Amino acid sequence: MTLSALIFDVDGTLAETEEAHRHAFLLAFGQSGLDWRWDPTVYRELLKVSGGRERILAYDPDAAPELVAGVHRRKTQIYTDMIASGRIAFRPGVEALINEAREAGVRLAIASTTSRANVEALLGRRRQWFEVIACGEDTVRKKPDPQVYQLVAFRMGLPVEQCIAIEDSTNGVKAAVGAGIPVVVTPSLYTTGDDFTGAAAIYPNLAEVKLNTLRALVP
Ligand SMILES: [Mg+2]
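Above: the input record for the complex with magnesium ion. Below: its predicted structure, written as C-alpha cells.
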C-alpha cells in the first residue's frame, strides 16, 4: 500500500516543548496567587492527562471552573509569548523528513490535543507545510481517544492505512492505533521509558529515519 501522508503530534514530537509548557504553568500559577509546585516529577505524572485545563483539574479536582479557565488562559498567553519570542527548534531529523516528504508528494498534517494558539505559535511560518492542522478545539474527546486522528484522515480524504502517525507518548500511540493508523514513536524528555505497546517502530529521534523507512511500515 502507498504511504500518502505523515501526521505529526506536536508537543514532544515536533519539538521538546514540555519544559516551556511547565514554566508557563508555573508563571501563571504565581500570577494567580497559587503556590502549586509542578516540578518535573509531578509534571511527568500530569502529562498522562491530555490538555492543559484537564491537567489542572487532575492536579486539583476541586478547583473552581472559573479559576481553571483563568489560569489556563493566562498560561496560554505566557506560553505563546515565550514560544514566539524565541522560536523553538524542531527535534533532530524532523525538518529533513518533512522536506523529503514534500519533495515526494507525501502530504503532511498535524494531530494535536493542544490549543490552536499554542500550535500556531510553535509553527510560525512552518504552518504552511501542513495541509490539515487539527488541534484541541477541533475534537470533543482528546487523546488517547482516536477522534483527532479520524478527523485528520477524514479531512485529507485518505484511508487510514495510507497514513503514518508520529508520536512521543502513550496517549498518542493509543489514539493513532485506535484510529487504525500505523504509528512510530520518538520518545521525548518526558516520555522516555513509557509504554508504547502497539507502535510499529520506536526510534530515539527522526535523524536516521527516511521516507523509505516509513514506507516499509505501511501494511
Ligand atoms: Mg506529544
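Notes for the reader.
The chain has nine helices and six strands.
The beta strands are 5-8, 107-111, 132-134, 163-167, 183-185, 201-202.
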